[in-house]
Amino acid sequence: MRKCGKTYNAAPIFDNSIEKSIKTVPAHNNMDPNRLEEAHRRLLHAWNTLPREQFERALDNVLLRMNLRQQYIPNRYLHPQMLNFGSHGVICSVRDVFNPNLPLVAKMHWNLHNLDQEKTNYSNLEGLSGFPFFLDAFIMPLGDAVVMGNHFCHMNVFQYVGESLQKIVERSLPISQRNVVTLGYKLFLIIESMHAARLVHRSIQLKHVTLQRKPNDKLQMWLIGLDEALPLDPLPVDNADVVSQDSSPFVDDGNPYQTFDDFISGVYLILRMSGIDLFENTGGDARRIAHQKQRFHQTPLNFVNNETAWIGELYDEIQAQSVNGYNHDQLFRIFHRAIPNFVPTVTPDLEIEYILMGNDTIFLG
After folding, report:
1. Average pLDDT value for residue range 356-364
2. pLDDT at 36
3. Which of these, 59, 180, 281, 313, has the minimum number of CB atoms within 10 Å of its CB?
4. InterPro entries of this UniProt entry (predicted)?
């Protein structure tokens, strides 16, 4: 079975002897010599007892941890304010003393793997429209992690990009189809650019799409939540960690994750923006959710009306392309003909109707 993620060379990673190589592992500048000696002793023990691949993974994590500890600058990020709490950690807004006017978010991960995965993904998407820029990654000493408690020490810092669509949609329903078409069109363009960078998101949900008001009063869309994203080469095989009511039925059935699965999740999102919740009466039951997905998969036009029929056509087109191959023009043509005499405008900003309450509370028209 093919595996996704990092691969490790089978060749020895040490030059002469394990003892000599361990002694050359870089230490934190302020690391106590006794702690360093203990670390060396444990590493030597691991070399003597663990299988080679498992040892190399452990060493990789040790080096990553040491590097991230060195990146930490005490008191750089101030005034954390809780924004959200997710499966992988806590998200807070912070102020950077080096860039006080730059809105930033600190995401505090439960573990090192999620931090490293997210950091790598943001780096691979750097410069692409629709993705925040990544600023910093570090491990905070436990004694300084007052806000997070004893478990949240692994931190990524990146650009703040507005409020989630989940919150905006909840207070805005019903939303006009012109806005829905425009938002869906832009989302699919962002997803497509991610696929071109050879990544799949694997967690397209309302909470992972944000809207941000710009100084010109236009809105910009962003895609976040990249700690679940994985490379397309090879196709991710083990996707049990992302099975949810937002995942495609093919992923739920244990198939390798494909680009079309991101688009299917995008269709579910578009349905919700249109006020159509496929899973409203499932009570969160996994079997009932799976049944609804199969019903929609077989006859998507039964779940829409004349105004939203284009969404069923979009789903059918995605299914056809999953067999016949991806075709940008055919897929995006559906957005262009969704509403007569209306062409969604999304570059560089979204042309949508909204009402602003207070300073930043967006209500979609």
Report:
1. 87
2. 67
3. 281
4. Kinase-like_dom_sf
Q: Which residue has the tokens 């060493």?
A: 59
**DSSP summary character for residue 257:** P
- φ/ψ region of 296 (left if φ > 0, alpha if ψ in -120 to 50, else beta) reads alpha
Q: How far apart are CA 225 and CA 198, in angstroms?
A: 17
The 10 Å CB-count burial string (b at 16+, else e) for 255-285 is: eebbbbbbbbbbbbbbbbbbebebbeebeee
Instruction: Report the side by side order of strands in the sheet with 154-159.
Output: 77-86, 89-96, 99-109, 154-159, 134-139
CA distance 251 to 317: 18
Distance CA 32, CA 345 (A): 59
DSSP 8-state assignment for residue 337: T
- 157 vs 179: CA distance, rounded Å: 31
On the question of pLDDT at 146 being above 70, the answer is no
Tokens for 52, please give them: 């080679």
HSE, side-chain direction, 13 A CA sphere, residue 288: 8
3-state secondary structure of 238: coil
The CA–CA distances, whole Å, from 99 to 75, 78, 162 equal 13, 11, 18
CB atoms closer than 10 angstroms to residue 31:
14
Q: Which of 169, 229, 234, 231 is nearest to 203 (CA)?
A: 229
Beta strands in the chain (DSSP E): 77-86, 89-96, 99-109, 134-139, 154-159, 163-164, 199-200, 209-213, 219-223, 230-231, 354-357, 361-364
> Do residues 291 and 298 lie in contact, with contact meaning Cβ atoms separated by under 8 Å?
no
pLDDT in tens, 175-211: 999 999 999 999 999 999 999 999 999 999 999 999 9
Per-residue tokens: 85: 């709490």
